[in-house]
Structure formats: C-alpha cells, structure tokens
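Run Glycosyltransferase involved in cell wall biosynthesis through structure prediction, thanks.
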Amino acid sequence: MSAVKTVKIAYRVLSREGWKPLFILILERLLGDFHSVSHVKTVDALDVVFNSPPAHLAMPVTVNEGPVHIAWIMSPPGETSGGHHNLFRFIDFAEKAGHTCTIYFYSNHVTKIDIAEIRKMMAKSNAFPHLQAEMFEYSRDDGVSSSVQAIFATGWETAYPAFLDKSLARRLYFVQDFEPYFYPVGSESVLAENTYKFGFEAITAGGWLAHKLSTEYGMKASHFDFGVEHNRYFRTNNNDRKEIFFYARPVTARRGFELGVMALEEFSKLRPDIEINMAGWDVSSRDLPFAFNNLGGVDISHLNEIYNRCAAGLVISMTNMSLLPLELMAAGAAPVVNDAPNNRMVADSPFIQYVAPTPGDLARALVRVVEDPSAVDKSREMSLSLSQTTWESSGAQFVVEFERTMRG
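Sure, done. The structure for Glycosyltransferase involved in cell wall biosynthesis is below.
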C-alpha cells in the first residue's frame, strides 16, 4: 500500500473512529507485532500504587443534597466511536438531572488534542448531544478543577490519571466493557485489569459487567440497562425481507470477524439468494468467498433503513454485548448472537437468537430466520417488545445510582 493511501486511511480512521482504532491500525500496518507505545502514559503507570493509595482517596467527598460537579476523563472522541456516543449520552443525562459536568481529554499520543476540532466534529454529527460541559486537555500538573466533587474514569487508561489526581473528589468508573479482553494476555491486558483494583465504584453498561467486577474484583458495582433510541430505530418494513446484516469489525477482535465470515460462507451456500450486507468497517479489500455489499462505516442516520431491509443481523460479541441487537430488534430484524453470559446477562430477550459460537450454528440460525414462515409477525412482535426500553429509563437508572454513591 502506498504511503499516500496509508495516510489517507489513517486520517479517515482518526476523524471518524478516534484514537484507539487508529492506534490499532498503525500497529497492524506499520509496526507488525512490536510496539512500545501504550494508551496510558508511562509516568502515570509508574506512579500508581493501588495497594497503597493516597490518603485522600480513603475519605472521598460526600454531597448530601443538591447538584454535583463531575469531571469526566476520557480519550478524544471520533465521529463514529460508539463508546463515546454512549458516554456523551450519559453526560447529557447527568446535566439534565442538574449536575455540572466538565470533560477532560487524556491521551498518550504525540498529536495535539484540538478541542475546537472536536467540538466542530461533534456539532456536525447527530450522534452527539448538545452539552453545556466545558472541555479541556487533562494536565497532570493542574489536575481537575478544585470545585470538582466526583471524577469518572471512562476507559482503563483514564483510570490512571483519575487515581493520581490530587483532588478530594470521589472516584467512580463508567465501565462499558471488560477492557482487558481487548488485548492478548500481556502488558496492556494487565495494565487494564489493574484498574479494577484501584478502589473506584463502578456504574456499568448492563448487568454482566457489574456482576463480573463485583464477584471477581470485589468492586462496588451497579448498572444501568441498555436502551433504544426509538426516534432513530423503528420498524418501517412489513414485508418479507431478503437480506441479512453482519456487524463487520476486523480491527476489533472481540467482534469475531473471522468467525462471522466463516458462518456467512456457509450461509451463502445454503441461501445464495439472500443478500449479505457488511457494515462497521471498510472490508472492500478483503477477498471473501461470497458476494456481499460493503457498506463500510455507515453514518448512524442511515442504519435504520439498512436494518429494515434485513431479516436477521449477525452480531458477535465476545465481551460486553453490543448495542446493535436491540437496535436491530427495534427495526424488526432478528439478532443472531453468540450464546454467552456476557450477552444473556445484558438482554435475554426471546427474540434474540442465541446460538453456540460455531460457524455452522451461526449459519443455520440465520437460515432459520430467513426461512421462518411467521417472520413478518415475529418482526412486528420483537419491535413492539422494546416499546418501554428507552435510554431515558437507562439514564434515570444511572442518575439514581450516581446520586446514591455521592450521598455516601
């Protein structure tokens, strides 16, 4: 691949996906199996001694009533970064509940954090809410504002500056996935896992994470349930559907791209008449043994139309469940998902086709959906089953758990 094309791809990934996927791309394309740059700054990793925390962390701030000033430490967002979309959604819920929020961006990359560009990107995207929060680059020397009463770590690398900050604020952890699983067993997986021993209280996306963190790491952990944006995902197609969808993320190992491709190869042999749509990443350069529509990184505003063309959606999640199964259901497409506690403990709907994580089982489950004579009726029922499943309800859960934590 030419240098010019590599730079163009890198720029596109950075602007749309954010720093973490770009980091993975660089490792894959340029550094091979060797790299020496971590998401966390070395000086921060060196200074954290979680078995002997600073004294002020043992006496966190309590706010008995009224609003709380919250600092959110996060990596810089990308346009299509789903984790950031959801994170900003909950910052919005906190603001609407009367709390003051300030955002601090933390990164170990040499490129300067451009807050004006981040604001411009967010303003152009309808995936981000409009916030009152001020935004700053996190400074180890300055720390968070002296008025901050709660600090949320939002990814494993941000737990390090959150731990080390000199503030008396209460430390919390907004956990959306089990991040040690993002890496092979090694340095980064251990650095990520260590953050669950920092003494923070977690509020997690779904019940599986809260269960795992409390039973395996002794963390205080509560959770909010997943929701659906019903103004964005809804059923429009009341006819038979002749297409399927695959959430294809080859750069994200936990999404099981290779397993999904094997399943789709078998499916294409069994039902060659059904169109296969792949979205989530540009896979046009992949030489796959079946025909497919390469949709790439689809803008969120176009997903409902795609989902409504599809009878089923293959979504593989090896860690915390993706948001996609509920979004597919809302649009009337049956999710086919690998059966595991990390998925069932988040959403155990009878409309989700939970199957063993083998290519053959996944392929046959897709065939069963597209050949089901009652598919149209089931499509309607699965969409209606989510009528009370909203992000507003999830936000209310989050606010209750946050305020309970802050009240001591």
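Residues 243-384 form a domain with the Rossmann fold fold (CATH 3.40.50.2000).
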